C-alpha cells in the first residue's frame, strides 16, 4: 500500500534519487505539455520534481501529491520548486479540491500502490478529478522481466565502475503479482540499500481498472516517442479519458 512506501523514500533515497535516476527526457515533457494544453496538471508522486519543474517551465500550471516529505523538500530546494502547490499524502486518495486537464504518474510509480484495491481506488479518484475532456496518463513497465527469473528471483549488475558496483536484486511472488526489489550500491562510501516493493499489473488489467472508474483507453504507446505498442514492448505510456 502507498503508506508502506513512506519508509522507502526517506532522506537517504531522496538524497540520491536524482543522481540515480537522471533527468526527465524532453520528449516526455513535450507529450505531457501537449496533453495538458492550457489546463492544469496534477502529478501523482511528484517526488523531487524531475518532471513537474520542467513542465511548469513550459507554462503549465502543475500541482502534486507525494507521501515523502524528504522528496518534496528536495523539490522545494530547486529553482521554482517553492512555487508549486504540493500536498503530502497517499497519491491514491487524490486529495485535492479541483479538477485537472491532465493527471499523470510516471516512472512505474503506479505499481508502488501495493494492492489491486489501492490501484483501482487511484483510478476512481483520478476520474473524479478529471475535467470532462481530461486525461489520465500512466507510464510503466510491462512485466517482461519474468523470463529472466530463475526460481522466482534474479541478481543483475546495473553498473560496475572503479568506485562503485550497483546491483539489482529481485524476488517475485507470481500469485500476488508482487516484486520485492533492492538496488544495492557497494562503494567507498559503504553499502547503501534502496528498496522497492511493487504490485505490478498487465496493460489489460489497467484497462479494466480504468473501465471501473468510467474511463476508456484513448492511446497506448511503447514509449514517449509514441512508438507503436506491440507484443515485444517492455514499457507503455497509456492515456485514458472519459
Report on this structure:
It is a single chain. This protein has 242 residues and is an alpha/beta fold. It has helices spanning 11-21, 26-36, 52-57, 69-76, 116-128, 203-212, and strands at 40-44, 61-66, 85-88, 100-105, 130-141, 153-160, 164-173, 178-187, 190-199, 216-221, 235-241. It has a seven-stranded mixed sheet with strand order 3-2-1-4-5-11-10, with helices on both faces. Strands 6-7-8-9 form a four-stranded antiparallel sheet, with no helix packed on it.
Write the layout of secondary structure elements.
Elements: H1 11-21, H2 26-36, E1 40-44, H3 52-57, E2 61-66, H4 69-76, E3 85-88, E4 100-105, H5 116-128, E5 130-141, E6 153-160, E7 164-173, E8 178-187, E9 190-199, H6 203-212, E10 216-221, E11 235-241
Parallel strand pairs: 1-2, 1-4, 2-3, 4-5
Antiparallel strand pairs: 5-11, 6-7, 7-8, 8-9, 10-11
Amino acid at each position: 500500500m502507498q503508506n508502506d512506501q513512506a519508509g522507502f523514500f526517506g532522506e537517504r533515497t531522496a538524497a540520491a534519487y536524482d543522481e540515480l535516476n537522471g533527468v526527465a527526457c524532453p520528449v516526455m515533457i513535450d507529450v505531457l505539455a501537449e496533453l495538458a494544453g492550457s489546463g492544469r496538471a496534477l502529478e501523482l508522486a511528484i517526488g523531487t520534481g524531475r518532471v513537474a519543474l520542467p513542465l511548469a517551465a513550459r507554462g503549465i500550471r502543475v500541482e502534486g501529491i507525494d507521501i515523502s516529505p524528504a522528496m518534496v523538500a528536495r523539490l522545494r530546494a530547486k529553482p521554482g520548486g517553492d512555487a508549486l502547490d504540493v500536498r503530502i499524502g497517499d497519491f491514491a486518495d487524490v486529495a485535492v479540491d479541483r479538477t485537472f486537464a491532465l493527471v499523470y504518474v510516471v516512472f512505474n510509480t503506479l505499481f508502488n500502490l501495493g494492492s489491486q484495491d489501492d490501484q483501482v481506488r487511484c483510478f476512481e479518484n483520478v476520474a473524479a478529478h478529471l475535467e470532462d475532456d481530461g486525461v489520465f496518463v500512466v507510464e510503466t513497465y510491462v512485466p517482461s522481466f519474468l523470463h529472466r527469473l530463475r526460481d522466482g528471483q534474479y541478481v543483475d549488475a546495473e553498473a560496475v565502475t572503479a568506485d562503485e558496483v550497483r546491483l539489482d536484486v529481485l524476488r517475485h511472488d507470481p500469485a500476488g503479482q508482487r516484486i520485492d526489489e533492492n538496488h544495492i550500491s557497494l562503494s567507498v562510501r559503504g553499502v547503501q540499500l534502496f528498496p522497492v516493493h511493487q504490485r505490478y499489473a498487465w496493460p489489460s488489467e489497467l484497462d479494466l481498472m480504468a473501465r471501473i472508474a468510467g474511463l476508456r483507453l484513448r492511446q497506448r504507446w511503447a514509449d514517449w516517442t509514441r512508438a507503436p505498442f506491440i507484443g515485444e514492448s517492455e514499457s507503455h505510456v497509456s492515456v485514458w479519458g472519459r
